[in-house]
Amino acid sequence: MEIKMTQEHANQTLLTTPLHALHIEVGAKMVPFAGYDMPVQYPLGVKKEHLHTREAAGLFDVSHMGQLRLHGANAAQALESLVPVDIIDLPAGKQRYAFFTNREGGIMDDLMVANLGDHLFVVVNAACKAQDIAHLQAHLPQGVELEVIDDRALLALQGPKAAEVLARLQPQVMAMHFMDIQLMDIDGAQCIVSRSGYTGEDGYEISVPAEQAEALARKLTAYEEVEWIGLGARDSLRLECGLCLYGHDLDTSTTPVEASLLWAISKVRRAEGERAGGFPGADIILGQIESKDVARKRVGLVGLTKAPVREGTELFDADGQHIGVVTSGTAGPTAGKPVSMAYIRADLSTIGTEIFADVRGKMLPMVVEKMPFVAQRYYRG
């Protein structure tokens, strides 16, 4: 993740999370991100933070994300009309990945939706928060109420030792499986805890009352297994595990089929039946699924040299024809080789295809490879 400080940034009035003062105290390097002053790295440094999360446990402040509640008997039905995902049959205590689509079939944002029994709990991306709230308000029917949560922080504890660490404060978390979510007390704070995350590792996301967030963060980082992790390592961790970043790998001009997100479109929404379609852009998306005809596809690329191939790098075939562009790229600290995500011509998206990246005038060879580049280690029981 390359975040450059500009004069425009310097002149911005940035929002802060409830943990802002603590980040400064522990020596974080702060940068503007999605309108917030956020930690990009800590004294440990991006690469060591990345490796530590893979080996032990990392704590991330993701309080900039939007936390929402949908209340009302028809909340699931209403939300289902805006996403190509099965929300109506989402069991209580479970969450699901989803995305808002527009009339052209493009992705407006990706999000997490959870059923907490008497309401839906929704987490959206920080940069899309205002847009998503407006989108929901414009489309929710009478009787379904949108509540914007602005008095809670959001922490992510990620890594192979995350469960062991969090269980010291609340043993209940050990019984949870990937994508489970429940309300529980953690060290005196009423939290919403899901066993999920954005690193490909086992771990938890913890929504905690803002006034109790610092105490919980201090308690967790006091354990020797846990280090603070910034946006830089969060980006390289998610990329190695094949997870998209909205605004980079996904946007309003990209359909879920082009983005290789077919797995996230629930079968009940694309099969023939009363709940098939019915979401914005359904005709375009379902047409692409049926015809398998798209001009470009999101793929994983592995570099055959040691040079990282970053976002924005143009891609070419062996004949020098332009075929696509890199949307995310990293040196791949755990993969041990440069890894990238890109959109390339669909006819070249087969695993094993060699293509070339124009890095400062040099054509560096890369190969299309299956994602994730590093195995996901979610706890499924």
Automatic annotation (TrEMBL):
A Pfam family matched in the record: GCV_T_C
This protein's record includes keyword ATP-binding: no
Main enzyme class: transferase
InterPro entries membership: GcvT (IPR006223), GcvT/YgfZ/DmdA (IPR028896), GcvT/YgfZ_C (IPR029043), GcvT_C (IPR013977), GCVT_N (IPR006222), TrmE/GcvT-like (IPR027266)
Catalysed transformations (reactions): N(6)-[(R)-S(8)-aminomethyldihydrolipoyl]-L-lysyl-[protein] + (6S)-5,6,7,8-tetrahydrofolate = N(6)-[(R)-dihydrolipoyl]-L-lysyl-[protein] + (6R)-5,10-methylene-5,6,7,8-tetrahydrofolate + NH4(+)
GO molecular function, one term: transaminase activity
Name of the protein in its database record: aminomethyltransferase
Organism per entry: Vibrio qinghaiensis
Phylogenetic placement of the source organism: Bacteria, Pseudomonadati, Pseudomonadota, Gammaproteobacteria, Vibrionales
Gene name of the encoded protein: gcvT
